[in-house]
From TrEMBL:
This is AhpD family alkylhydroperoxidase. It comes from Plantactinospora soyae. It holds the Pfam family CMD. It comes from the Bacteria. Residues 13-95 form the Carboxymuconolactone decarboxylase-like domain. One of its GO terms (molecular function) is peroxiredoxin activity. InterPro entries: AhpD-like, AhpD_core, CMD-like. SUPFAM superfamilies: AhpD-like.
Length: 152
């Protein structure tokens, strides 16, 4: 498989500014960076975005995440490796990524669980980060941006 076009953000430089603002705001509200990394990885797995799965796992690992937890993100419900707050964030990420899968895309119980672990500003950051991840995933999947072939 080959990319259809180069990275669209590189072709439209003003878009990079907007993405950088979304990234900065999402990461400045107090949600642990490790939680944001896990959320990014899970949404990217669901969406089949090879570039984001690869980049997200590498970024998480570089920032101290363990292989054990990274390998288990896709099955987070069936493993003991995640905190209750991380589980709530992962459930929110899955629901917000799979909007068309149920009549109530983000059920009250998923939102309430997230709200037990995160304050309003942190919830806003999580929602914004999930949406930004889905933006990355959709751009990359549509244009067939691939995970790097030379890992060096």
């Amino acid at each position: 498989m080959q990319a259809r076009i180069n990275n669209p953000a590189a072709l439209l430089p003003e878009a990079v500014k907007a993405v950088n603002i979304l990234y900065k705001e999402s990461h400045s509200a107090g949600v642990p960076a490790s939680t944001l990394e896990l959320v990014h990885l899970r949404a990217s797995q669901i969406n089949g975005c090879s570039a984001c799965v690869d980049g997200g796992a590498r970024s998480a690992k570089k920032n101290g995440e363990t292989d054990e937890r990274l390998f288990a993100v896709a099955v987070w419900r069936e493993t003991p490796y995640f905190t209750d707050a991380e589980r709530a964030a992962l459930a929110l990420a899955e629901a917000a990524t799979r909007l068309a899968d149920r009549p109530d895309p983000v059920p009250d119980e998923i939102w309430a669980d997230a709200a037990r672990h995160f304050n309003e500003k942190e919830l806003a950051a999580l929602v914004l980060w999930i949406a930004t991840t889905n933006l990355f995933n959709r751009i990359n999947a549509t244009t067939r941006q691939l995970a790097p072939q030379n890992w060096g």
